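Researcher: I'd like a candidate sequence for this fold, 184 residues long. If you have to choose between options at a position, lean toward the conservative one.
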């Protein structure tokens, strides 16, 4: 499973969903939860970057991951910081996708406003992620879960794609509105 996690870390980087040492991922296998260490660069993960979730070196997001596993039957959790979901989360309480995949998979994507690090933050994320496997933390990015790391990765990609489509659609709407106002 660590080999798959290393592959997913690279995919997150190449998809523009992480940068530097941002983001983290975890998986549950045989009753044991492994998570990336604090400060790990997901694009260049090695086996030594994974620790048991109880480790003092575990990601600072370990509380969120633990709560998701506690309240769901997901086996993988990814947290990433794509630009478009972060931007839209600063302006909205929910993201309503315009694209077909976003509509089919999510209907809407909720935005959590709680402060990072608080117990309420982890609880709200875990409760909301149970619905469709994704949630966005205001100004902080996507939490995505799945039966596998690949499923969690795919969901994160769909969310970011939906946010990008929505973002550009709104820019085009504003440009068209300005253009129509100038024609009069």
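Model: Candidate sequence:
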């Amino acid at each position: 499973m660590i080999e798959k996690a290393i592959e997913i870390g690279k995919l997150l980087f190449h998809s523009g969903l992480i940068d530097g040492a941002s983001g983290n991922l975890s998986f549950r296998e045989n009753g044991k939860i492994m998570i990336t260490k604090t400060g790990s660069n997901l694009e260049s993960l090695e086996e030594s970057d994974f620790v048991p979730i109880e480790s003092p070196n575990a990601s600072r997001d370990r509380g969120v991951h633990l709560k998701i596993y506690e309240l769901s039957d997901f086996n993988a959790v990814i947290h990433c910081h794509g630009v478009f979901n972060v931007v839209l989360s600063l302006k909205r309480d929910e993201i309503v996708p315009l694209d077909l995949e976003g509509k089919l998979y999510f209907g809407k994507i909720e935005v959590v406003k709680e402060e990072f690090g608080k117990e309420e933050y982890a609880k709200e994320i875990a409760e909301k992620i149970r619905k469709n496997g994704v949630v966005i933390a205001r100004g902080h990015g996507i939490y995505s879960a799945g039966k596998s790391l690949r499923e969690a990765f795919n969901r994160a990609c769909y969310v970011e794609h939906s946010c990008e489509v929505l973002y550009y659609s709104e820019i085009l709407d504003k440009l068209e509105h300005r253009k129509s106002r100038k024609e009069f």
